[in-house]
Amino acid sequence: IRTKLRLTKRNKNSGIGVITTTTKEVLGRMDELTRNELKVLLRTKDLVKDLEAEAKALPWGGWGDELLASYLIIMKFPEDLKTFFPFTPCKANADCSTDFALRHTLEFRQKFQPWLVTRGMMTESEDGFLYARGTTHSRSSIVWYQPGLHDTIHEHSYKRLLVHILDRAVAESLSVSDGRIGRFYTFLDCKDFTLKKLPKFEEVKKLFRILQDHFPDRLSALYLFNLSTPAQIFLKMAGVVLSEDVKQKIIAVPNDAEKRYELLSGLMDPKQIPVRYGGQDDFVFSPSDYFGEPTASEDEVLAYKTTMPYHA
Questions:
Q1: Which residues partner with 7 through β-bridges?
Q2: Going by C-beta distance under 8 Å and a sequence separation of 6 or more, which residues neighbour residue 292?
Q3: 275-310 pLDDT tens trace
Q4: Contact 193, 231 (CB under 8 A)
Q5: Would the pTM count as exceeding 0.85?
Q6: Cα angle at 159 between 228 and 199, to 5 degrees?
Q7: pLDDT tens digits, residue range 158-217?
Q8: Burial of 280 (0-12, 13-18, 19+ CB in 10 A)
Q9: How far is CA 59 from CA 51, 170, 259, in A?
């Protein structure tokens, strides 16, 4: 499976990547492991074997070696099975066992239940500012995000919507790749973006913590379109809580329609590219078509604030 990745020199002010063209073969994580890394994975797999039945009982998107590898990539495959990840609970001293992150995420999925959809999420999404649709040549999912289109209605619904969309994207990628990929590309259009359109920054930091703890190595790349001054200010603020691995995946695309289309068409079929970016996809977002009926009440999905206050 091949995809063209366009990488560029780094912008010294924003720490954001810029574009040159290389071709990289995209494989499943298990295909890329060294012998020593595989040994670490098998030892960690033995540590979490008691979780398998519990994990498989949940809508997970995938439980197995590929999932373990995604966590161990972030942990750098520690031979002593001691790690600094997840960053917040383990950063004081790198003595968390490699199985801790899996147990932590299992608890998160049991209590947050990111697959659930509420009426508030559907209302939050009505303007179509955020959705996952289609896959790239490398079988990663595609997330389209236009925060400038939307004024936050309810901070929790916004946070839950974003987590749900990314969880959905991971599941779709795993489905079309026979469980081998489980990644997504995010295309973030900064047009008309202002800081006032987002939830309060404290809530944004909580969102980043969820994504870093429970979606390790799921982001293929984050491409920024129409990068503006407010967006650059936000990225500098976010840089305090983003890991270096994530920062390396943020790529600014020049404000040139032709170059933007060249980038997109290198990653996906033109039928997957929205008309607004010169492609053929004339999809119009509808919450009822996209989500169907709500599957939970607001009270049900807020219960995690009590049962798992770490993410509250």
A1: 20
A2: 117
A3: 999 999 999 999 999 999 999 999 999 999 999 999
A4: yes
A5: yes
A6: 50
A7: 999 999 999 999 999 999 998 889 999 999 999 999 999 999 999 999 999 999 999 999
A8: exposed
A9: 14, 12, 39
